[in-house]
Each structure stands twice: as C-alpha cells, then as structure tokens.
C-alpha cells in the first residue's frame, strides 16, 4: 500500500509539476506577447511625434515643421509665393469672390500707408498740371494706376487692379452687382450723402481728406456702341482718339457715379480705379488694333516728361507698351468673360452696320434696319416684336433732313439700345 501509495503520490507530484511548468510557459509566453505589443505601441507613438509648429495660411503641421499649400512657403507658411509673369487685370464681375475680397482687404490696408496716401493726394495736387485735358491724360493715369498697384502688391502680392466695364450694363448700371452691399463688392448709392452699405461705408472707411465716401448715382453710362465709336478712330487720328476717350467716356462716368467721384478728390474713392482701369483697358484695346495703333501718339509728345512722376521722370514712351512698364512690369487685361459680354460681342459681329455708324442716314430704308435687328435677335435671346422696334424708330427718327449746323440724330439716342433694355422688353412681350 505504501509502495502503491508512494507511487500514486509521486505520480500526482509529477502531474502537478508538469501542470505548473505548462502554466509558467503559458504565462511567460503571454507576458512576452504583452511586452511585444507594448513595444510596438511605443514605436508607433514615436513615429507620430507631437506637433510643435504653428502653421499659417492653411498649412498642416508635421512634427516641428509645416507642410504648406502651393501659395505659401516658409517654416510656418507665412510667406506668400508671388505669381510671376504678366499681371492680369480682370473685370470686377469675372473675379472670384475670394479675389474681390482679397483686393478690398489689401486696398483698405494700404490706405493707412504713407506711400499709398501720398499717391492718392498726388492726383488732386496735380489735377491742373497737365494730367487732364491733353495728351498726357492716358499715359499719366496708366503710370498712376501702376504705382498704386505696386503699393497694393507690397501688402498682398496676389492682388491686381480690377476694372468695371460699365458699357455692358449701360441701361441699368446701378443695379450691377459691383454696387451691392456684400463685403466683396463696393457698396451702393449715397444719394449725394455718405454711402451706408458695403466695405467702404461710413464708419468703415475714411477718405484722406476726411468725412466719408459719397455717391450720387444718376443717368446711364456710355454703351457698347459709344465705346466702339471711340475705338474705331483711326491711328492717323490719334489726337481725336485721346480727346474722345477723355471727353465722351471718361468724364461722363465720373459724374454718373457722382459724389466723391465727381470732384477733385475723386482718387480718394476706390471706384476711381475701377473706372480708370477700364479707360486704360480701352486704350490698350485701341493699341491692339494694329502696329500703327500700338505706338501712335501725338507728334512731339511721346518723349516729353509728364508731371508728378518723381523721383524718376517718366514720359509717355515709358508706359505706352503695357508689356514693358516701368520696373520691368508686364500688364495684360483679360477681356470680360461674362455671358452678357459674349453675347454682345457675337451680336456686334453680325450687325455692325446697325449699331456702329455714328448716324443713321435719313434715306436708309427702315426695313433694312429692322432686318438687322431680326438677325441679331436670336443671338441676344430676345423676342422683341417688330411693332415695338418700328414705333421706337419712328419716334426717334423723323427722317427729315437736318437743318444747317444741326447734327443728325444718333442711332444710340434713337433706339436707346443696350442689352439689358432689350432683354427686359423681351420679357414683357
């Protein structure tokens, strides 16, 4: 029994020992696996270090440095990557909302800079020194726009001057989006007093001379036919072109906007540059008609120094070519991209004989003009009825011969043509 019992006890002890060894092996294996997992987790934590950089302008943090977007560089994405090549100036409505907001922000920031304020004052200080009503009008203002744009680019190098093509909306210019109260547009009418809407409203913007920005909208701006007649002046008549663009297009819009724009302090209004940029674009369009137009300027005036361009004396020759402006700057105007601009351009190609002549000869058959309108109607997507067109013509033109010294009635005044009017009438038919 004892022997048997000893064997039984010895067997139990051996079993217990084996079981204990198995448990120890399992525990050791589990402990080892747990340690391995801990080490792996630690390594993963070390692979994604805590971000210590403060990234700007949309940059993302990667450890102690930033990964920047294509528009910025630097350790914290603080430095803009400035565009190279020609500066492209766009119609205000063709800019993105972000581009417009960026321009307005830069403009308001620049307005507190001494170099910018000095430039703004120089227009008023030199108002009667030859920068208006003469051959220096276009080149001086081209130089002036460039200097103002240069300061804006010191604030934000992505900014370029926009322009407003008021000819596209001549029938109802004051309903154009540019005059809305959105923060990325210019605000509305002040009816002769301070404007109260938009980013340049009273309390948000103060002109250099004090007070507030005033507007007093009135009348209609020159139309596409008005502009085309000026651009149709030949290169041989450059003096006439310079006179017509200043007197018939430029001067009128200043006082159509009214208020600050219709005063010697006009350059204090941001609207000034929307308008003058378009005038400069029209000069560029005229220059682009031929090699003769490109460098044409009144005899003896091309190399005369212009006033108020110190410290470097600038002549019309220095600015006549947009691709080689002072400082090695290249400028290009983008043609309007809107649907209304496209349709007008297409229509003008089809019926130039209707809209472009300065005057309608009294012996021109009425049916020929109506036929021209019929041809253009499909392009303009209108449904103007013949009765309206004919009655409007009969009211506007009696087809009597003018008396000596009397000017024949113009087509523009006879029809009052502009695209918005045509489309508005079409909806009423």
Mean pLDDT rating: 79
Structural class, judged by helices and strands? mainly alpha
- Envelope shape: elongated
The proportion of residues in beta strands is under 5%
Count up the helices.
Answer: 15
Spatial sequence of strands, sheet with the most strands? 1-2
Order of helices and strands: HEEEEEHHHHHHHHEHHHHHH
Query: In total, how many beta strands?
Result: 6
Give the termini separation. Answer: 125 Å
Radius of gyration: 36 Å
Share of helical residues: 40-55%
Poorly predicted tracts of residues: 1-7, 350-429
Largest sheet: 2 strands, antiparallel
Write up this protein.
- Helices cover 47% and strands 4% of the residues.
- The chain is built from 15 helices and six strands.
- The chain is elongated and about 125 Å long.
- It starts with a helix and ends with a helix.
- The relative contact order is 0.09.
């Amino acid at each position: 029994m004892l022997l048997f019992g000893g064997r039984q006890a010895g067997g139990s002890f051996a079993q217990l020992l084996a079981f204990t060894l198995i448990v120890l092996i399992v525990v050791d294996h589990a402990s080892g696996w747990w340690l391995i997992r801990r080490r792996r987790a630690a390594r993963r934590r070390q692979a994604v270090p805590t971000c210590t950089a403060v990234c700007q302008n949309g940059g993302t943090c990667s450890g102690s440095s930033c990964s920047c977007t294509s528009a910025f560089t630097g350790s914290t994405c603080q430095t803009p990557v400035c565009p190279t090549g020609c500066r492209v100036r766009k119609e205000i409505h063709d800019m993105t909302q972000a581009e417009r907001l960026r321009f307005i922000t830069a403009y308001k920031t620049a307005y507190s800079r001494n170099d910018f304020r000095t430039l703004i004052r120089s227009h008023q200080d030199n108002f009667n020194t030859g920068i208006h009503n003469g051959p220096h009008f276009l080149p001086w203002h081209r130089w002036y726009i460039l200097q103002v744009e240069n300061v804006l680019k010191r604030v934000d190098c992505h900014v370029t001057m926009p322009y407003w093509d008021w000819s596209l909306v001549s029938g109802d210019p004051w309903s154009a989006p540019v005059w809305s109260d959105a923060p990325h547009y210019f605000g509305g009418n002040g009816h002769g007093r301070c404007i109260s809407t938009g980013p340049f409203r009273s309390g948000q913007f103060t002109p250099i001379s004090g007070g507030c920005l005033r507007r007093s909208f009135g009348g209609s701006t020159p139309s596409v036919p008005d502009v085309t007649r000026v651009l149709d002046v030949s290169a041989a008549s450059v003096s006439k072109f310079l006179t017509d663009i200043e007197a018939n297009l430029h001067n009128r819009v200043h006082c159509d906007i009214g208020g600050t724009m219709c005063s010697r302090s006009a350059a204090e209004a941001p609207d000034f540059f929307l308008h003058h940029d378009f005038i400069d674009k029209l000069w560029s369009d005229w220059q682009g008609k031929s090699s003769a137009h490109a460098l044409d300027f009144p005899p003896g005036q091309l190399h005369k120094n212009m006033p108020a361009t110190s410290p470097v004396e600038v002549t019309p020759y220095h600015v006549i070519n947009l691709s080689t402006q002072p400082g090695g700057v290249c400028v290009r105007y983008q043609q309007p991209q809107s649907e209304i601009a496209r349709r007008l351009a297409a229509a003008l190609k089809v019926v130039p004989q209707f809209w472009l002549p300065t005057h309608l000869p009294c012996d021109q058959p009425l049916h020929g003009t109506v036929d021209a309108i019929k041809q253009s109607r499909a392009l303009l997507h209108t449904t103007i009825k013949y009765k309206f067109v004919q009655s409007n013509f009969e009211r506007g033109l009696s087809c009597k011969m003018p008396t000596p010294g009397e000017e024949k009635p113009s087509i523009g005044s006879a029809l009052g043509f502009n695209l918005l009017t045509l489309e508005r009438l079409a909806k009423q038919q």
